[in-house]
Structure prediction request, 327 residues.
Amino acid sequence: MSHEENNNTLKYNSLNDYLRKKFGSKLYKLSLNAGFSCPNRDGTLGTGGCIFCSEGGSGDFAASPELTIKEQIASAKQRVIGKMPRDASSHRFIAYFQAYTNTYAPIDVLEKVFMDALEEPEIVALSIATRPDCLSPEVLFLLTRLNKIKPIWVELGLQTIHETTAVFIRRGYPLSTFVSAVDNLHKSGIEIIVHIILGLPKESPDMILETVRFVSNLPVQGIKLQLLHILQNTPLAAYYSSLPEIIREKEFAMMDKNAYFDTLLACLDNLAPGIIIHRLTGDGDKRILLAPEWSGNKKAVLNGFQKHLKESDTFQGRLFKKEEGEV
Prediction:
């Protein structure tokens, strides 16, 4: 199961509220690994990937690519069902193609992989993580066709609108490519979810909000807000470890918990009201997490943010409350 945002008490557009309205019940994500690569890893654009990306291609919670998609789904379903409430009325899932770049393969391979998931009766939608420079007309045509079978969501890793930061993190494409991808997906009727990283080196709070406002003015349906994690065996970890402490504190100070909560509040205040919040924090694998250590306990982070939100008077009055029947 992907460790996605699963808080359903917040009175902005939380993912769970959206899923209940659209599908009639709570859904669970199954993280899958289609065994694809990435143009930023195979030598097309680069070989090291984005500097923050783990060896698992940001799919550290996904299943083994040695299994077929149907085998991965069956295995993941059993793990998730074991964690569901005993009175859960149904078992329905979103197939989340998470690891690496999931439109970076020949069309016939992509169609086979995606159809293997769509054919599973308990899968109600696909969420496909990819790069905006890996959405050729042929890929868009395929996704548009599949979207008529079951809903297709495309997740785009923007991270930042600032080109100096984009170069530093080795994103490998200009902002114009992202804007074009959003436009093409929107015209195709495909839901778009944008990933933004908060706390990138040398980015001020104002720069973060510029990114949020930029995305908010585009025809996107969802957003994932993620704290920057430093994971072992990444170029970012090597860079971070090489900095003298005085430089690290000046140019690359990691957010503490309260600073992150304040940043989240500001981001939510600058988002268009209709955008669905898919994530409020990240999921760095605790086994390889170097910093910030406090982020390793996601449940504590989300509970802390709820408390912070309750106590805040800056969130346009959009505070949360317990829904009927919740404890």
User: Anything to note?
Assistant: The chain is about 35% helix and 15% strand. The CA atoms of residues 34 and 273 lie 34 Å apart. Residues 1-10, 316-327 have pLDDT under 50 and may be disordered.
